Amino acid sequence: MVSLAIPQHHEVSEITEVASRPILQGGIRFWLIAGFFAIFVAAGIGAYAYQVMHGLGVTGYNDSVFWAVYESNLVAFIGISYGGAVTSALLRLAGAGWRAPIVRMAEAMALVSLCVGALFGIIHLGRPDRLLELFTRPHATSPIVWDFLAITTYIVATVVFLYLPLIPDLGAVRDFVGPRVGGWRLRVYRILALGWRDLPVQRRIVEQSMTVVAIVIIPLAVSVHSVLAWAFGVTVRVGWHSTILAPYFVVAALLSGVAAVILVVYAFRRAYHLEEYITVKQFRYLSYLMLALGLGYLYLTISEMLTESYVLDEQTAPLLQSMLIGSFSPFFWFFLIVGGAIPTLLVVLPWTRTPAGIALAALLTVVGMWVKRLVIVIPPLEQPVFDRVARGYQVSITEILVTLGATAAIPLLLMLFFRVFPILSIDEIHEVAEEELAAHHERHEEFTGRGPVRAEGGVR
Amino acid sequence: MTEAPQPNDRFDRVPVVPDTHEGGPEHLTVAEALARQVSRRNVVAGIGVAAAAAGAVGLGLPVLSRPAQAKAEAVEWHDHAHADGPAAAASDLAKHQWVMVFDLRRCDGCGKCSDACIDMHFLQKETPWIRVYERESSGGQKYFLPVPCQACEDPPCTKVCPVTATYRVQDGVTLVDQSVCIGCRMCLAACPYGVRTFSWNEPRKAPTSLAGPTPEFPVPQKLGTAGKCVMCVHNLRVGKFPGCVDACGMDAIYIGDLETDTMTNGTETFRLSQYLKENDAFRLREELNTGPRVYYVAGHGQNLEF
Q1: Which of A85, A428, B9, B78, CA to CA, is 20 to 30 A from B299?
Q2: How would you class A256 by CB atoms within 10 Å of its CB: exposed for 0-12, middle for 13-18, buried for 19 or more?
Q3: Domains of chain A, residue spans
Q4: Each residue's pLDDT tens digit, A259-280
Q5: What CATH fold (topology level) applies to the domain A25-432?
Q6: How far is A150 from chain B (nearest CA, A)?
Q7: Which of B186, B229, B283, B306 to mutate to test binding with chain A, by most A CBs within 10 Å of its CB?
Q8: A236 and B192: CB-CB below 8 Å?
Q9: Which residues of B touch A392 (CB under 8 A)?
């Protein structure tokens, strides 16, 4: 940490001002959009209440296809929460300065999608009323118990990871914005800022804790998706019983997570005019990350399908047939072309590598990866077990409404979150700017510019 | 390197000669039950039952003490509140190790076993706990394969249950406590035989006069929980046959006991180990090493590999 005599207070309040735009700007437009999402969320809650009253029979599930959309949602939503762990933790540890303006959105998105995803662990249960038995009589050999432990631990870590860098920001917001908004939000800032006064000792504690959590959250994130994969992998079902499944799930989660971060950043950047801080650079770097992860996922897909299809035993053959040319082939090819090939082209071609083009690629990736989860979960269950002709799975309106509701809950919760908490990581932007300023000074000893130096990247 | 279980392996180790050290002669409970089946069986019933009963008595089938070998493969036993049957202490339960034997030469695919199962357990019409599949032999002939719970010695379904709602009891039957099951369906995923069912909708009502619901006799079913064939262990423990065995007009289903090394379908009684060996009995998906305790006898050119 380089301490330089730069006009700190002026600088901080300027970033604080921008980061607090969602807090200060409410208005009819905000509530209209929030209301639009809230309608879907309400419909989803209603559909779930209906399901609780009448049992899982209101879904399209049956004894053959006993896991379907809900389990895909569980995997997909927890998957996109990886965006927070990657862009924030990995980029922090790698010292990538360009991360600063997007980490808050990435971390908030991680928490929100994780909570929504974890809800599907409850939604899919036949007896959600007995959930507490997971505490009172857990069975250590069950992958469901592993999932439960991993997800709850990960939720705690994600909250801490979101909260720690918020502390200095809340101090700034409390002082500069709080008095203007007043009311309950000011009280929230006062409580959650934990008496932040930017003392060196406070700063040291926060920074050291951040480094520890950033390191811890990465293996934790890997473990969550590995145990999710093992809930499928430890069965003898063809298509699930595969050693590649855990890394396959982890890479899928990273890919969809980075794509989701791009989407969230794009939407809020537009809505609150954050172009000043979030430039083309952030999109370009995130898109490279997405491209690399996408190719990694393609590699794993080929690796699995080649080894399976080369041997083509009697159980694998009908599964591959169903996926490649059979009843599930539209989903598989949608994933491969719309969710894989087109996003790749959008990122690779220079003239579509714009924030809008990259956001479109990210949207297609998120949707494509959700569809891929359906392809992972459902076709293996539609294979006959001992000639038991699997009753085909037909999605019901209940599952559609619950899924739409959960999807809408993510932007809605993010909008509400940023009504209270700053959307940019004020302190981190400032810190990166300082670091780059220091580097700038070292490179140009003779430098005597006017006003605060705008280093490339973080602060423009 | 673990030794792959062979179909008849364990029977070689079960002494065929009755162990007379174990108190006085005690009739096989199922053999006792034969006498109660007289009214059901027609034509040769009298002779059949008499012969069978005589056979059983003639063999002097006492309850054998469990051989050391079988103890080494001791079944998973969860000290479970509901696991004790009405009159069964844990030590009594271990005196029988139930198995089922299906003579595929006799099965005509009528599905009465499935119907009886549905009636006994008040199941939905399409989800009996014993399903009969129509298959085709390598020679192109049709034959039928009835598949109940395979009563694995090392059941994959119990391992994956997050709340130990499903567990194996000492007489070799895997049960589900539907008052505990959280309905995650992990056991449906784990079962290699696809024999588990789930109560997706409000289950059928059952008369309150019935003994259930207990894990041994889960009637009526509970909404949002898993269900499975329990080999009608509530019947076996009191010397009665499972519903499917009773219902089979072809006498194709036998109940056997590894401890006493006997098997019976109500009209015929055989020495279990000998019957399995002489008829080249096989089990389903043996290669998975789950140790299924349901045996099949082929004879119409059926494939021996499943």
Answers
A1: B9
A2: buried
A3: 25-432
A4: 999 999 999 999 988 888 898 9
A5: Formate dehydrogenase/DMSO reductase fold (1.20.1630)
A6: 14
A7: B186
A8: yes
A9: none
